[in-house]
Amino acid sequence: MTERVVLAYSGGLDTSVAIPYLAEKMNAEVVCVAVDLGQGGEDMEAIQKRAIDCGAAESVVVDAKEEFAADFCVPALQANALYMDRYPLVSSLSRPLIAKHLVTAAQQFGGTIVSHGCTGKGNDQVRFEAGLAALAPDLKVVAPARDFAWTRDKAIEYAEAKGLPIETSKKNPFSIDQNLWGRAVETGFLEDIWNGPTEEVYSYTADPSQPREPDEVVLTFEAGVPVKIDGRSLTPYEIIDELNKRAGAQGVGRIDMVEDRLVGIKSREVYEAPGAIALINAHMELENVTVERDLARFKRGVDQRWSELVYDGLWFSPLKDALDALIRQAQKHVSGDVRMTLHAGKATVTGRRSEESLYDFSLATYDTGDTFDQSLAKGFVQLFSLPAKIAAARDARKG
């Protein structure tokens, strides 16, 4: 019986070349799985057909836009997930979902091997394979670019020799990954970290320095889930999609950073995540209003660890499951409205209101009507600072 390889297919050079190469190398039929994650700008029907034209035995397109938004982007939002306090996990979030659909396709089409187009330098090989190991440990994994030392030059030469119906020029110097949550750009002249990104790098965002009228938006959350824009009830996918357009038009969400990759090297990455950054800013501020102080302090550490786990490819892991439970509990009262101004590359919170608010005007005000009993403060300060005072006295005695 001929083996079947289930390939995570993007429609680009590397995965298109992988179809005939895997068929020859492994004497197998190739089943291509393309997953629509709301990336836009790509004709999924054309990608499906291209896989067949390149020699695939089966070609499947999965519409996972709503699933990605609700089950992956929303948990990231509730965790205020920013790797190294800046990167909103654009690629990291998509890989476990793609892995899930690869396993489903393997079960449907009798696949025994799963393949992806990642190199040995990147994080995505870990994300795919850690997910596959958790979901279907019996499946074998092959990564042609990594396991058979493919280079871009070799891939172009192979594609031309096979007459594959794909663009093989070097006009686009960048490696790009994009989905609903954002867009990641690397390689090309960006590998020199002194070079500034030019406008051609960007697609999701307009130049924030250009003059334009600001855009005011009101976001409504229920238990940490975005449910409305300007009073209109929408799905998480629809909300993120609209904010990508509105915040993107204002240049919100551009990030240029050198990050610590899981494999141990530093990498220069340029990201665009207008909807993600706007939503995270709003959600953080609503948490400031509705989450009790000690829980909020503890959750900030949980958020950071959650981000690191997902970045490192451990979406399906016991620790992440445990952190998910704490984050869900912390979202219990995170309901209300946040008003933001989108303008000049920033998403600025200008108002917040919530029936779950812990903000008490009468306690916070310095004007008439203040109910805070300041006479209690002197003794509180003395007791609160007592351990430091005692330690300082000890140190003074010791010289």
From TrEMBL:
Protein name: Argininosuccinate synthase
InterPro entries xrefs: Arginosuc_syn_C, Arginosuc_syn_N, Arginosuc_synth, Arginosuc_synth_CS, Arginosuc_synth_type_1_subfam, AS_cat/multimer_dom_body, Rossmann-like_a/b/a_fold
UniProt-annotated binding residues for ATP: 8-16, 117
Lineage, opening ranks: Bacteria, Bacillati, Actinomycetota, Actinomycetes, Streptosporangiales
Annotated Pfam families: Arginosuc_syn_C, Arginosuc_synth
This enzyme's EC code(s): 6.3.4.5
Principal location: cytoplasm
Domain Arginosuccinate synthase-like N-terminal: 4-165
Involved pathway(s): Amino-acid biosynthesis; L-arginine biosynthesis; L-arginine from L-ornithine and carbamoyl phosphate: step 2/3
Family as reported in the entry's similarity comment: Belongs to the argininosuccinate synthase family. Type 1 subfamily.
Subcellular location: Cytoplasm
Taxonomy, superkingdom: Bacteria
Positions contributing to L-aspartate binding: 119, 123-124
